[in-house]
From TrEMBL:
Protein name, entry field: Excisionase family DNA-binding protein
Coiled coil regions, renumbered to chain: none
NCBIfam families (alphabetical): excise
Domain Helix-turn-helix, residue spans: 2-51
Keywords annotated in UniProt: DNA-binding
Database matches in InterPro entries: HTH_17, SinI_DNA-bd
Molecular function as annotated in GO: DNA binding
Length: 77
């Protein structure tokens, strides 16, 4: 499935200017149809969203990890 620049910005939850900048940098592959419309393949973002999910899980695991006791703390009551 192909998206326009505006649809891609909505899909990625970023601004249109940011998507255009990524296109100019060559980080997003595009196709140009005969009428000058820029089309972007939705499949190229599959890995991006998989990496985001892995990162979210890692952050959640780190947030839920208990804080170890400090060995230097002495009970001086």
């Amino acid at each position: 499935m192909y998206l326009t620049v505006e649809e891609t910005a909505d899909y990625l939850s970023v601004s249109v200017a940011y998507v255009e900048n990524l296109i100019l940098q060559g980080k997003i592959r595009v196709l140009h149809d005969g009428e000058g419309v820029v089309l972007i393949s939705k499949d190229q973002f599959k890995t991006h969203f998989e990496q985001l999910e892995k990162y979210k899980k890692l952050v959640e695991e780190l947030a839920n990890e208990p804080i170890p006791e400090d060995k230097d703390i002495k009970d001086e009551d």
